[in-house]
Amino acid sequence: MMVRLLCALLVGWCAAASAADSGTLARIRTSGELRLGYIDNAAPFSSIGTGAKEPQGYSVELCRRIADGVRDQLSLKQLRVSWVALTVQNRLDAVRDGKVDIECSTTTWTLARNRDVDFSMISFVDGASVLTRRDPQVAALTDFKGKRIAVIAGTTTHTRLREALTKRSIEAEIVPINSREQGMKLLAAGEVGGFASDRMVLLGLAQQAGSTAPYRVLDEDFSIEPYAFALSRNDSDFRLAVNKVLAGLYRSGEIESVYDRWLGPMGRPSLLVSAAFYLQGLGE
Fold first, then answer.
1. Mean pLDDT computed over 82-91
2. What is the reported pTM?
3. Helix, strand, coil % over all residues of the chain, rounded to 5
């Protein structure tokens, strides 16, 4: 009887060990590498400046902090971080297919996306708005009646913009595009009246254009966009390791220095952002 019990325990232990060995943390321990995905031209969250070799920004720094935390949790002397360039269109596929371990940019956490990937704690809360040329006749979304608004196809902003226009009975034409660069080119050429995206990203694009550029972001938002880092589904151990790092940053207040470094020039954290940090500062 005792032999049978020991055999059963051994089989159970081997099965558990096999399952653990198949997880992201086990692969990281074996390879010594963490693969992080990013999107360029999403400043101040993720971008590569002129002459820079690696991405930088708010989301990028949080992912670097996560890499350090995972290294310490696994008691590794070193952990190699590999940055993988992604696009808005393939970022979630890259996580789902295992090409990257974490996607570090401006991805909104939705229930629909949870069918394909998992998500970390919320890293930021933004709202979608519209970047337009300075025009006293265009101050709100309702002023886009009869105008064209560019938006990256397939994003949550695309869906929310369509819903907002329908709900408010605003007859504006939505122009699907593939990238932020394309949106800015259309706006600069006057081919669209506005470019819809997340507010902080639009502010970053306006700053990059320079102080003399004729752009402004509408004062109103037409959606709430909770950002989180996309992770592989069904890997609770890795999600816990990631969340332990984020919770520690929120709990200790270190997140304030990260915010100030990348987002400070755009103003203090909103009440929603401050609440997200406070509520997620979970204890060990």
1. 96
2. 0.85
3. 45, 25, 35
